[in-house]
Design brief:
This protein starts with 5 loop residues before the first helix and ends with a helix. About 75% of the residues lie in helices and about 0% in strands. The protein has about 190 residues and is mainly α. This is TetR/AcrR family transcriptional regulator. Keywords: DNA-binding, Transcription, Transcription regulation. InterPro entries: Homeodomain-like_sf, HTH-type_TetR-like_transc_reg, HTH_TetR, Tet_transcr_reg_TetR-rel_C_sf. It comes from Actinomadura monticuli.
């Protein structure tokens, strides 16, 4: 039996992403993914022991890492904590809304599949987000521009919940309206007075 390589796993994740985009999450089968990857079903099952749920999560996490790399770059450039909060949140909302790989997981037919795949890994995803922003938040606390009485994990979870809410409940605000909302209601909760 051949050993599965990281290259094979990436090929399978690429194929899963393509199939989820083409057929939708609910209608994509492991057979579809194997065919798109030009691999046998057995190779896919050996490489991805968690099946479709693991593939759904792998696609989401890979795109999340891409976004977090971009967010880290933005945080390095921002001059103030309030603007980092506002622009980082706005960037996250726009990214998810416009990124087909993530957006097709938000359609109602994917909800049940997505919940099953991500529920068990929510702590992993939150920890990943915290790892990316922790250095910036810790620096802001040392500079007394971020409230000293809040922790990074709680702050990231709060922002994650805000971002999710803004994505799911689009109130037809333009970018300036969303900035105003964030400055009024979110920034005061996180930034030092």
């Amino acid at each position: 039996m051949p050993v599965t390589t990281d290259t094979t796993r990436e090929r399978i994740i690429d194929a899963a992403e393509e199939c989820f985009g083409r057929f939708g999450v609910a209608k994509t089968t492991v057979e579809d993914i194997a065919a798109a990857a030009k691999l046998s079903r057995a190779t896919v099952y050996r490489s991805v022991t968690g099946g479709r749920d693991e593939l759904i999560l792998a696609v989401v996490v890979r795109d999340l890492l891409r976004f977090l790399d971009r967010l880290a770059e933005r945080l390095r450039r921002e001059r103030s904590v309030p603007e980092a909060i506002v622009e980082g949140t706005l960037d996250a909302v726009e990214y998810v809304r416009s990124e087909p790989t993530i957006a097709h997981f938000l359609v109602p037919e994917a909800a049940g599949h997505m919940q099953a795949a991500v529920a068990g890994a929510a702590e992993h995803v939150l920890a990943l987000c915290c790892d990316y922003v922790r250095p910036y938040f810790e620096q802001a606390q040392r500079q007394r521009t971020l409230r000293a009485d809040i922790d990074v994990e709680g702050t990231v979870e709060f922002l994650f919940r805000i971002i999710t809410s803004l994505i799911v409940m689009d109130r037809d605000r333009d970018a300036d309206g969303l900035r105003s909302f964030l400055r009024t209601y979110v920034v005061p909760v996180i930034a030092a007075p």
